[in-house]
Design brief:
By secondary structure, this protein is α/β, with parallel strands linked by helices. Helix content is 43%, strand content 12%. It has one domain (10-126): Orthogonal Bundle (Arc Repressor Mutant, subunit A), CATH 1.10.10. The protein has a 4-stranded mixed beta sheet with strand order 2-1-3-4.
């Protein structure tokens, strides 16, 4: 007899002042399996925030992350593959790979997990 557990969803808060970006990110995450968007003021497991001028993109002053890169980064933090990122954002897998590569460069990361860790350390995203 197999006992299957239903994992609790990861609760994600979106704390982005840019309404358009916030709505696009919400639309891309709202139907994600294993994920639930937090209501305003509700505690969350992960909070997605946009980089501001006072938030450096990296220690060596690389260009700030674009809104699309922030969307890709949020999906990477979920553990999404390039194929899943492409599907969720309505882009090609090639374009998803390009964005991931750009994030690795801008965050001076050695891989996807390191990119998420670097983004957390730099305050780009909050887990």
């Amino acid at each position: 007899m197999s006992t299957s557990r239903v994992a609790e969803p990861i609760v994600v808060a979106i704390d982005i002042e840019d309404t358009d970006l916030s709505e696009r990110l919400f639309a891309s995450l709202v139907d994600a399996r294993g994920l639930r968007i937090a209501q305003r003021g509700e505690p969350a497991d992960v909070t997605v925030v946009a980089a501001t001028e006072s938030t450096p993109a990296s220690d060596n002053n690389e260009a700030a992350l674009t809104p699309r890169e922030l969307e890709v980064l949020a999906l990477m933090a979920e553990g999404a593959s390039n194929k899943a990122i492409a599907r969720r954002l309505g882009i090609s897998v090639h374009t998803a790979k390009f964005h991931v590569g750009s994030l690795l460069d801008k965050l001076d990361a050695t891989g996807r997990t390191d990119a998420v860790a670097q983004a957390v350390r730099q305050g780009v995203i909050h887990l």
